[in-house]
Amino acid sequence: MSTSDEKPKSELILDELKRRQRTKEVVDVEEERVKVVIFICGVNFFAFYGRDIREILPSCDISWVPCLPDYLPGLINVRGDIESVIDLRHFLGEEKGDHGNCLIAMAVHGDFHSGVMIESIEDVVDIPLRLIQPPLATLNGAARDLVIGEIEYGGETISLLDIGKLANLISL
Amino acid sequence: MNDKGEKQLASINLLLFSVGGVHFGIDAEQVAGIGAYDGDQAEDLFWFHEELEYGDAAVSYASPTVVTIRTGGVQSYRVIIDSMEDIAEFSQDDIRLFPELLEPFAMRRGLWGILPVKGIMVLLLDFQRFLKQKLTVIN
């Protein structure tokens, strides 16, 4: 039996649970998180910061324009706005195939805005900022110019791509 | 003035055609003549898809037509287009700019705007601008 000055067991448990909750809230407040959009381009997973992706458009007609480089497949009409489309596979060394079933991620970063062709959306997740690791030193080619970090997802390491870097690369 | 207080632009007459499934429009004022292609192999006659650098894709012409373009110079410029569709008047207000990312590439080939018509994007081509760029490259 408990003595009269001892707290009931239930209160002790409640106190402990509340203490843990307060600690968790403090941790939650302090830990900065970012939203990332995980997608497939070619046959591999990649990610963008969620803040740079305005919307995902279902497969739509891309109007080809002569004299554009390979990485610019043409134009799309987004509710009356004419937008460019970028083929990311060119920069990531991914094999190019038919883009009839591709989705278009509408990317906006500062003054830069364009559609970006992707195969499919895998997930949109909030991750702690601390989990973004520096890019792999072994990266090469144009991909190195686009990758801002690496994240773990489903046991795989995924390259986090920077729309700002993509904008700079194309505007050169 | 429209409801945004912007000055209404005048209309433009466009000759509409398509080559290899891509739709184009040129200012009808630039056209000096139109005639059916009779197999002429003259050196001053150009195939549109070669001029616009369509690349490796094979382009077939269903109804090739020779368009003579006013150049303002001594020599006229003749180009073979395909599937001439219409000469129609459009409001300049309906013309859209190329997205910033594409504009430098498009302008190098005289493509200066886009006209969405019934779900189709018509690429507006200024042959005089195109020829100026072509001559700059040659020289």
Secondary structure topology:
The complex is a heterodimer of chains A (172) and B (139).
Chain A: H1 9-30, E1 33-41, E2 44-49, E3 53-57, E4 74-78, E5 81-87, H2 89-92, E6 103-109, E7 112-118, E8 120-128, H3 142-146, E9 147-153, E10 156-161, H4 163-171
Parallel strand pairs in A: 2-10, 5-7
Antiparallel strand pairs in A: 1-2, 1-8, 3-6, 4-5, 6-7, 9-10
Chain B: E1 11-19, E2 22-27, E3 31-36, E4 45-47, H1 48-51, E5 65-69, E6 77-81, E7 84-91, H2 103-107, E8 111-117, E9 120-125, H3 127-138
Parallel strand pairs in B: 2-9, 4-6
Antiparallel strand pairs in B: 1-2, 1-7, 3-5, 5-6, 8-9
Summed up:
Chain A is an alpha+beta fold. Chain A has four helices and ten strands; from the N terminus they run αβββββαβββαββα.
What does this structure look like?
The complex is a heterodimer of chains A (172) and B (139). Chain A contains 4 helices and 10 strands; from the N terminus they run αβββββαβββαββα. Chain A has helices spanning 9-30, 89-92, 142-146, 163-171, and strands spanning 33-41, 44-49, 53-57, 74-78, 81-87, 103-109, 112-118, 120-128, 147-153, 156-161. In chain A, the strands form 2 sheets. Chain A has a 5-stranded mixed beta sheet. The longest helix of chain A is centred in the first third of the chain and has 22 residues, at 9-30. The N and C termini of chain A lie far apart (79 Å). The mean pLDDT of chain A is 87. Chain B has helices at 48-51, 103-107, 127-138, and strands at residues 11-19, 22-27, 31-36, 45-47, 65-69, 77-81, 84-91, 111-117, 120-125. The longest helix of chain B is centred in the last third of the chain and has 12 residues, at 127-138. The relative contact order of chain B is 0.23. With 139 residues, chain B is of the alpha+beta class. Classes of the chains: A alpha+beta (172), B alpha+beta (139). The A-B interface holds A 63-69, 72, 75, 77, 80, 82-84, 86, 111-114, 170-171 and B 22, 49, 52-55, 96-102, 105-106, 108-109, 111, 114, 116, 119-121, 123.
